[in-house]
Amino acid sequence: MHFFDFNLFKFTFFDLLDVLLVAFLIYQLYNLIRGTIAANIFIGLALLFGMYYVVKALHMQLLTGILGKFVDVGIIALIVVFQQEVRRFLLLVGKNASLQRNRAWWQYFFGKADAEKNNYARIKPIIDACKSLKSTRTGALIVFAKYYDEQFYQNSCEVIEGKISKRLLESIFQKTSPLHDGAVVIAENKIKSASCILPLTEKTDLPAQFGLRHRAGIGVTEANDATAIIISEETGELSYAKQGRVKMNISFAELEKLLNKDF
Ligand SMILES: Nc1ncnc2c1ncn2[C@@H]1O[C@H](COP(=O)(O)OP(=O)(O)OP(=O)(O)O)[C@@H](O)[C@H]1O
């Protein structure tokens, strides 16, 4: 009689790799949906799947039949329900293999000082504009898109295609400007568009003072490979959003560091 199957405990290097990769994917998934409404949906679906296997093991025919209908369309339902999260996940995976990254490594080894000098020249007008907007308590939302998705941005934006300058940014966000409502999108080293209406985050754990501007600033970084500076009209505070998370009340020195890294 066969009591114990030692083959069950054969653990190869690839099994270990398999477990580590699954753990990594679950961790990334957790990071993506943490604090969002999707986390509740995910728990709901996990319970449904769990229940299906329990009732199946207990041979409860009727419930197994009903729950089985949901489980059968499992992967398609997951993709439909988590459309935004799947998009963000794929962006995250793709970003690490992107040409932009490889160029950054190249610069790291062969031309760091030069790259930093150029970068400072690029970000200075943005920092100067933020200083001025903060001092006048002018609300602003500036998005830095790694990839300018025409379909995503252009539907709701005014096309600008202008050189990045302090005065242009100030003029756009001035309260009497027809373009001041909405976000400015910077990509390909240009102010691509202004007055953009962006998707709002569905996060439920944000500070009470965060209104639509902050929600839009966080939302765009969830749906796209982008970061965003948010200047509050109410308090003049600067926040920085990246991958759906937000750093509040940052200083200009911090902003410079963040832009140096992300822009
Ligand atoms: N979907 C959106 N996309 C881009 N900008 C938006 C969007 N919704 C609102 N805004 C901008 O946010 C402004 C309203 O900001 P609101 O007062 O609700 O935000 P807030 O996060 O509390 O910021 P503040 O501290 O500046 O008041 C609008 O005038 C508009 O410019």
UniProtKB/TrEMBL annotation:
SUPFAM superfamilies: YojJ-like. PROSITE patterns: DAC. It catalyses: 2 ATP = 3',3'-c-di-AMP + 2 diphosphate. Keywords: ATP-binding, Cell membrane, Membrane, Nucleotide-binding, Nucleotidyltransferase, Transferase, Transmembrane, Transmembrane helix. The chain crosses the membrane at residues 12-30, 37-55, 61-82. Its EC number is 2.7.7.85. Coiled coil: none annotated. This is Diadenylate cyclase. The gene is dacA.
